[in-house]
Design a protein that fits this description.
Structural class of chain B: alpha+beta
CATH architecture of chain A: 3-Layer(aba) Sandwich
Largest sheet of chain A: 6 strands, mixed
Structural class of chain A: alpha/beta
Oligomer: heterodimer
Helix content of chain A: 10-25%
CATH architecture of the largest domain in chain B: 2-Layer Sandwich
Number of domains of chain B: 3
Shape of chain A: globular
CATH superfamily of chain A: P-loop containing nucleotide triphosphate hydrolases
Bound molecules: guanosine-5'-diphosphate, magnesium ion
Helix content of chain B: 10-25%
Number of helices of chain A: 6
CATH class of the largest domain in chain B: Alpha Beta
Distance between the termini of chain B: 39 Å
Number of domains of chain A: 1
Strand order of the largest sheet of chain A: 2-3-1-4-5-6
CATH topology of the largest domain in chain B: Guanine Nucleotide Dissociation Inhibitor, domain 2
CATH topology of chain A: Rossmann fold
Order of helices and strands of chain A: EHEEEHHEHEHH
Shape of chain B: globular
Radius of gyration of chain B: 24 Å
Strand content of chain A: 15-25%
Largest interface: A-B, 52 and 51 residues
Number of strands of chain A: 6
Distance between the termini of chain A: 20 Å
Number of strands of chain B: 23
């Protein structure tokens, strides 16, 4: 049996990229197996989603954070990046503009995230290829990712194609970095607010 | 995609200082249409944490000694308690941009000529807090962060020892002595003579329930007298112990009253142990208050608010059908039914403080000892230099204290092996010089062979201490007071957040719903993937 939930190492994974790239759709498809072609406002109220995942025979708890719309005017805060083990950068393969912005997003991720954090590039909306909607080739995406030292894949949240792959591969990379995974249990120097002080605080058991 | 000027915003919040950001948090489950702006391209406004590059340009923007950039003369305007009478115009339109603030002045940066060779890292390796306040564990700020669930995104570190600089006894000369704050401390303190120990114990016992009917008569008549006199006259504390107790109040003018001083010491002592042994206050990792501000803004964004930085805004017109028209820097006009900002103009009655932020290429390890069994390693140490304790040859005797907050690299504000020292004092003509002396004295006292790599000096004043509310028809303009100059977070500013919250919420404001939220976190699955 898998170890109990609370003892699992927690990995913080961020989704970033331009508005409309399909970040929230990927999060909802991966975590809840839902896809809503209409709504972009559906993401209001989503801070992060939690999902369990095992790689190399070991289970992890992923906390996957969405940008909460703060990418729209590029106002993601430095605190968003704190403690992230992995950053998934998403662009829309049917939009040249969204692909062209990825360089800036890689720069921002490098500037703000832990230098050891794993970066991963995702081209989304792969289903649009079938209706002639591809604007960025697989090779372009792949070459760019390689230049950035990142892994790459293309996905469709609509058809589910490849949606698990970025998460599995990011975690696989993370767990190979002991210095990164060491931070997966809360630091002994920070104070645990759940332990005391506020008796009214419901216990999280 | 919805556009900014499509409909009327319920509120536009200007500035991402702590008050505005806590308001954003408080409103984050309200379904109100909220636009939150900042003129700077970073979060936190006057409480920001800056990289070296940001600090350099911030200093550049605040070098002026002449503090007003407005047409009107300084006098009269700054009290700013005007109430608009004109139907269409505010008498004194609020300065909405922290960039035009007159709260800071005389900023300058000094860099070691061989800073990089001495270990100064890249600019982003630093995060210098403009307002490094400690937060007592008893503070309502922490309970609100807990009840709103925002605390999960902030990492809190322990504030450790409070030290006082001075002569304890002839044998040791001038040193840093830990301020005894518990029975155990007092008993184990070797430098305190037995008679003084008894006096100190008596005082500590008194403070714990100083506000009770039994103890009140002891101090009530002297409530507005200086605490320092009261300590000597009533408790017969010697000079060293008096200085130690005063240091606990973090009083900047050294003249804290009996009433205020006892309240502060009470808060200090009753905060010890609340979240764990050995510490009375916490400090948010990565730059203090600024981190809480960012988490508040993120909560606002998660709740659907729109965020824009680097976007100055000005008031176009007020009153048109109960709306306020604003113009953004990109010439977009927007309208809102309420406008929340913070006062950017200093009050003529405000004290001015001088701050020196210094990066040291030594960890100053000895200041961060663990204080009790099972206690976390502190990341912040407080050092007080009582009035008159610093060596100064030529000048007139310095009659205000200097405080140093020493931050270890655990705060994330500097690379490991280094530390950041934040010095504060009430401004005097020599304060820039005095703070340098205090810094040198500190480094000598901890026998650190560290060099100063980078220094940022500035002076800070505050606005009127009241919020300003101007109403016209159904439109309301609300201005928070500027951040307090105190070294510990003051719960009073939370009341103004609630005040603003009520204005935006109107009839939907249920008192007991303020900052009371459930976790947003959703376990998204029953079918875990294993491969
Ligand atoms: N066809 C298709 N549309 C998608 C896909 N993923 C997202 N979308 C649509 O693209 C739009 C933007 O997606 P969203 O997840 O909100 O983007 P975000 O701004 O990056 O969070 C929405 O209308 C989605 O329905 C996909 O895989 N295929
Ligand atoms: Mg989204």
């Amino acid at each position: 049996m898998a170890p109990s939930e609370d003892s699992l190492p927690v990995l913080k994974i961020l989704l970033i990229g331009p508005s409309g790239a399909g970040k929230s759709a990927l999060l909802l498809r991966y975590c809840e197996d839902q896809f809503d072609p209409e709504s972009t406002t559906a993401t209001i109220g989503i801070d992060f989603k939690t999902k369990k995942l095992a790689v190399r025979g070991k289970a992890y708890k992923l906390n996957i954070f969405d940008t909460a719309g703060q990418e729209r005017f590029r106002t993601l805060s430095t605190s968003y990046y704190r403690g992230a083990h992995g950053v998934i950068l998403v662009y829309d393969i049917s939009s040249k503009k969204s692909f062209a912005s990825m360089e800036k997003w890689f720069d921002e991720a490098r500037l703000n995230a832990n230098p050891d954090a794993v970066l991963y590039l995702v081209g989304s909306k792969l289903d649009k290829v079938a209706v002639g909607g591809r604007a960025v080739s697989f090779e372009q995406g792949k070459a760019f990712a390689e230049a950035q030292g990142a892994e790459f894949c293309e996905i469709s949240s609509k058809t589910r194609e490849n949606v698990k792959r970025p998460f599995v591969e990011v975690v696989d990379k993370i767990v190979q970095k002991p210095q990164l995974i060491a931070g997966a249990t809360p630091g002994s120097k920070s104070i645990d607010f759940d332990m005391g002080g506020f008796p009214s605080n419901p216990c999280s058991c | 995609m919805e556009s900014l000027n499509a409909e009327t915003w319920d509120t536009v919040i200007c500035g991402t200082g702590l008050s505005q950001s806590l308001l954003a948090l408080a409103l984050s489950r309200s379904k109100k249409r909220i636009l939150h702006l900042d003129a700077n391209d970073f979060y936190g406004e006057h409480e920001a944490a800056l990289s070296l590059q940001e600090a350099d340009s911030w200093a550049h923007a605040h070098t002026g000694g002449d503090v007003l950039h407005h047409d009107e003369p300084a006098s009269g305007k700054n009290t700013n308690e005007n109430v608009a009478s004109d139907k269409n115009k505010l008498l004194t339109p609020p300065v909405l941009s922290g960039k035009e603030s007159t709260l800071f002045r005389n900023a300058h940066v000094w860099k070691h000529p061989n800073a990089e060779a001495q270990g100064l890292s890249f600019p982003r390796a630093y995060s210098l807090a403009l307002a490094p306040q400690i937060i007592h564990t008893k503070s309502k700020l922490l309970s609100q962060l807990v009840s709103s669930k925002a605390y999960r995104q902030v990492e809190f570190l322990a504030v450790g020892s409070f030290y006082v600089y001075g002569t304890t006894d002839a044998a040791h000369g001038t040193t840093l002595a830990r301020i005894p704050s518990s029975r155990e401390d007092v008993f184990s303190a070797q430098s305190i003579p037995a008679r003084s120990k008894r006096a100190l114990m008596k005082f500590l016992k008194f403070v714990i329930d100083y506000d009770s009917d039994e103890q009140k008569p002891i101090w009530q008549e002297k409530a507005d007298n200086p605490l320092s006199e009261f300590l000597v006259e009533h408790f017969k504390l010697d000079e060293h112990l008096r200085d130690s107790i005063l240091a606990m109040t973090l009083t900047l003018d050294g003249k804290v009253t009996v009433k205020d001083g006892l309240a502060t010491i009470h808060r200090h002592l009753t905060s010890i142990g609340l979240f764990g042994p050995g510490f009375c206050a916490v400090y948010p990792k990565w730059g203090g208050i600024s981190e809480i501000a960012q988490v508040g803004c993120r909560a606002g964004a998660v709740g659907g608010s729109t965020y824009m930085l680097d976007t100055p805004v000005s008031i176009d017109e007020v009153g048109h059908g109960g709306d306020i028209w604003l113009k953004l820097s990109n010439d977009i006009s927007i309208r809102t039914t309420s406008l929340i900002s913070s006062q950017q103009t200093y009050s003529t009655t405000s004290p001015t403080i001088s701050r020196l932020v210094a990066i040291i290429n030594s960890p100053l390890q000895s200041l961060f000892e663990i204080l009790a069994e099972g206690a976390p390693t502190p990341a912040v140490a407080v050092v007080a230099f009582p009035s008159g304790s610093l060596p100064n040859n030529s000048q007139p005797r310095l009659d205000v204290p200097v405080y140093a907050f020493v931050h270890s690299s655990e705060t994330g504000e500097c690379p490991s092996g280094q530390s950041v020292v934040y010095l504060t004092m009430q401004t005097t003509p020599q304060s820039s010089h005095v703070l340098d002396i205090a810094l040198a004295t500190l480094l000598q006292a901890v026998a650190a062979d560290g060099d100063v790599l980078y220094k940022l000096y500035y002076e800070q004043a505050n606005s009127s201490r009241h919020s300003l509310v101007t109403s016209q028809g159904s439109a309301t303009v609300f201005e928070f007071p500027s951040p307090s100059l105190g070294l510990a977070f003051d719960d009073e500013s939370l009341d103004t957040v609630k005040e603003a919250w009520k204005i935006v919420m109107k009839d939907d404001a249920l008192d007991n719903a303020f900052m009371q939220f459930e976790d947003r976190e959703g376990m998204g699955d029953d079918d875990d993937d294993y491969d």
